[in-house]
Structures are given as C-alpha cells and as structure tokens.
Design a protein that fits this description.
Helix content is 8%, strand content 63%. It is mainly beta. Strands 1-2-3-4-5-6-7-8-9-10-11-12 form a 12-stranded antiparallel beta sheet. The protein is built from 3 helices and 12 strands, in the order E-E-H-E-E-E-E-H-E-E-H-E-E-E-E. The protein is globular and about 65 Å long. The chain starts with a strand and ends in an 11-residue tail after the last strand.
C-alpha cells in the first residue's frame, strides 16, 4: 500500500491505498468460512481531513467465485455508501443465511445507515439466475432469470417498505406498506401466468 500525511489550510489530512491478500484462511465461524473461502485479496482507498467524514472511495474484496466492490463515507456513527456483489454460487452463503440457498446473483445496495440507532434508508436490487431459497413453490417461480428491487426505510417509528418489485418467470409481485409495533399495514399484488409454475401440486 501507500499513503500520505499532510496539512492543508491548517487542517490535518491523511490518505492512502491499502492492498491485502490472504490464503489458508480459517475463520472460527463456519458460516463466515464458507462464504469467504480460504483465499481472498482486495484493495481499499481512503481519505480523511480534520473535521470531515472519513471517505472510502473504493473497497474491493475478491475470492473464489465472488467479488464485492463498495465505496462511501463514515461520519461518526453514520455510514453512507454503495456496494455491488457478484456471487457465482449463492450456496456459499447458506450457513450465514440459515437456509439452503443456491443460484447465481448480482446484488447492489445504496443508502445510509446509523450504526447506533439501527436505522437505515436505502435501495437494493438483485438480478438472479436459478435462485433457490429452500421453499419449493418459490424455488419453482425463481427458476431461470429473476429481478428483485426494494426501497426501504427504518427509523424509530418502524419500517416503511416504499416499494418491492419481483419479476420472475410467470410471476410479478409488487408490495408496499409499513411495519411497526403500533400496527402494520402492508399491501401486495401478485400475478401468475400459470399456477403450474408453483409445482406439480398446482397443475
């Protein structure tokens, strides 16, 4: 890696690039070990100026069958940024998710989160191929190409689902609403081209 420490306008500045690589990794958590694999490499660039947020223009992590790129900034306990992940086999995240996942996916996330309050406001999208989540009917619907997108906000009043869209072979789903301790209000529309796509029991 490389870096530089300087002073400009009477303010301290620090910036640099870090590169890293590791092999023979054996995380103690089995789910993390399965997801990461035993060999990873990556790069991170950062910049900080006294009185300003920590800027992370580029973060990249690559392993066998997956890659993650991200960027953003950290201001106190508030994180703002974006990330994209390509996973050739979602099965590697099955232990972490606690479900028998499978398929190939590309996911993007962008938004803001407060690490102390647990609040966030963001959007996410997933483009999948032959995704499986361990639920027979849903797995049948997700066969082939699928697209999922969502816009969600969570604060002290609850969770607001501004939009959820799912497009898959023979299925379209749109949903929105709120979930809160005081009460929930969710609405959804589902459209099936053919109920047989749910599986043999629905033919």
């Amino acid at each position: 890696g490389s870096g530089r420490i300087s002073r400009m306008g009477g303010k301290q500045q620090v910036g640099g690039t870090l590169t890293f690589a590791g092999q023979g990794l054996v995380p103690t958590d089995a789910g993390v070990a399965q997801a990461l694999g035993d060999k990873v490499d990556g790069v991170a660039t950062f910049f900080w100026q006294e009185g300003a947020a920590l800027s992370l223009p580029k973060l990249a992590l690559n392993g066998e069958g997956y890659g993650v790129t991200a960027g953003g900034q950290i201001d106190g306990l508030t994180l703002t940024g974006r990330a994209t992940a390509l996973v050739e086999d979602m099965g590697r995240t099955a232990l972490l998710a606690g479900r028998p996942l499978a398929g190939k996916g590309v996911a993007t996330v962008n938004g803001t989160a407060n690490l102390l309050a647990g609040s966030f406001d963001g959007e996410a999208a997933v483009s999948g191929t032959d995704l499986r989540v361990g639920q027979a009917e849903l797995d049948s619907l997700l066969r082939g190409a699928s697209e999922i997108s969502a816009s969600v906000k969570r604060d002290e009043t609850g969770t607001t689902l501004r939009r959820l869209d799912l497009r898959a072979t023979g299925l379209q789903v749109t949903a929105s609403g709120t979930v809160a301790s005081a009460g929930s209000d969710l609405a959804a529309e589902l459209a099936f081209d053919d109920l047989a796509s749910l599986g043999g029991a629905y033919s």
